Amino acid sequence: MTQSEFYNAADDLLQRNIDAGRGDKVTIVDDDGGHTHNELVDRVHRCANALREFGLGPGQRILLCLFDSIDFHTSFLGAIKAGVVPVPLNTLWTSSDYAHVLVDSGAAAVIVSEARLPVLLDAAQSVGWNGRVILSASRRQNNHALLTQLLGSAAPRAETFQSHPDDVCFWLYSSGSTGKPKAAVHRQTSMAMTARLFGQGVLSLNENDVTYSAAKLFFAYGLGNSLSFPLYTGATVVLHGGRTLPPVVNAILREKRPTLFCGVPTLYSSLLATADLPKAGEHNLRLCISAGEPLPEHVGQAWQERTGVEIVDAPGSTEMLHCFVSNRPGAVRYGTSGQPVPGYKVKLVDDGGSEVHAGEIGELWFSGPTSCAYYWNHPEKSQSTFVGEWTRTGDKYRQDSLGDLVFCGRGDDMLKVGGIWVSPLEVESVLVSHEAVLEAVVVGSSDENGLVKPRAFVVVKAGILPNDELKQKLKDFVKDKLAPYKYPRWVQFVPELPKTATGKVQRFRLRQLARDDSSERA
Fold this sequence. Notes:
Blueprint: H1 9-19, E1 26-30, E2 33-36, H2 37-53, E3 61-65, H3 70-82, E4 85-88, H4 95-105, E5 109-113, H5 117-127, E6 132-136, E7 145-146, H6 147-153, E8 168-173, E9 183-187, H7 190-200, E10 210-213, H8 220-233, E11 236-238, H9 246-255, E12 260-263, H10 265-272, E13 287-290, H11 297-307, E14 311-313, E15 325-326, E16 339-340, E17 345-349, E18 362-367, E19 374-375, H12 379-385, E20 386-387, E21 390-399, E22 405-410, E23 415-417, E24 420-422, H13 424-431, E25 437-446, E26 452-460, H14 468-481, E27 490-493, H15 507-516
Parallel strand pairs: 1-11, 3-4, 3-5, 5-6, 6-7, 10-11, 10-12, 12-13, 13-14, 26-27
Antiparallel strand pairs: 1-2, 8-9, 9-19, 15-16, 17-18, 18-21, 20-21, 21-22, 23-24, 25-26
């Protein structure tokens, strides 16, 4: 076998900037300051050697419970260079979530940020996990190895593990918006492919760009935005280790001057509700991206009016690694998800797997070069999700007259009211356009006759009094905008919506709450 038949994702992403003469360019700006590409390369080489000296071999898994910083890039790429499989973890998970993954992954080691160490150790104790722990911190705790010390004592040049293009590269656990997380197993070539097809092909990223992603690196969307896209294109990335609260985001947009901002709909809505969102002339943005959930039309329009910058809505998935459908810069149609990213295919099918007619609602299936290989430890789920070249999403879409895809809801979220399908998203879009509403989610709930009707969970804006009068006003507001059978029979005010760390609403929790609250009737 010749050398050209080997491919290692870490080497590919790192070598591009070296070959382009950008070794001395600041490629990462984190909470500790700027880091050049040469510094990152040195750290990755040392990390690969350190992991080998730590006893980790090809194919073994190492969990990364790390906040966004150069330590994530170092650990993730260092593991891949050594042939070890990195598995990023959600840094807001509970002990029980970590316990599940420690057992499920069979990981031999973990690299963990100092603040998450107690939760992770509690999880390890609960399931009897006794793997190796490496600490990303400035000082030792409980005799755990320090990442900085391991890097400092490791040799500065490392041999690259000779992997093949379709070999396993890394895992990503799902966000858990529908229950227990499961791991999507990704191949070596997938990161570079998403960077080429979407990062360059749609976003036109280049070495003059500065990216900032509110979605964290453990999330598939954030991994592309903050690691593979910048490394592939030569752009600089801004990383923030803390939570992406609106004041923090607004300050970064003003002070760090990113040209590309990557957020989720919930965050865009929250930012619009603040008084200090940078206006046109107060930032350096050229483009914004939204993923994770469909972007409500009114949010996109309001954002563009306030900032002067459009948001490209681009659906993606953990299974496909990044965005595979997208609006196009300069031709955004808010309220739609756009069309397939070049290199990907989509189709809408009925329950029997046959393609639906134009304008009809069907389940979205997609095909492309970055689909994960399978779900770890879930053979039945793998078999039902991956059908030949196609991946089933469970999402319901229709295609409008211009060929753009319009999201209608998750398959298990769609409601049949009076024998007619109702899209929760359609009702939600009307509710959030009301001046009193900050966020709204609609789920199905049974009335006294056992018939399913829409129930709305609503978060009101600051200063608004949630009372019975407002409930009726919201019901009437929807009735005035949509067919009468679509209005929410119940409006339930909540202080906040249950969400994953990536901003996705956990609808299954609201469905459970609706079942538990069966005493309230229309």
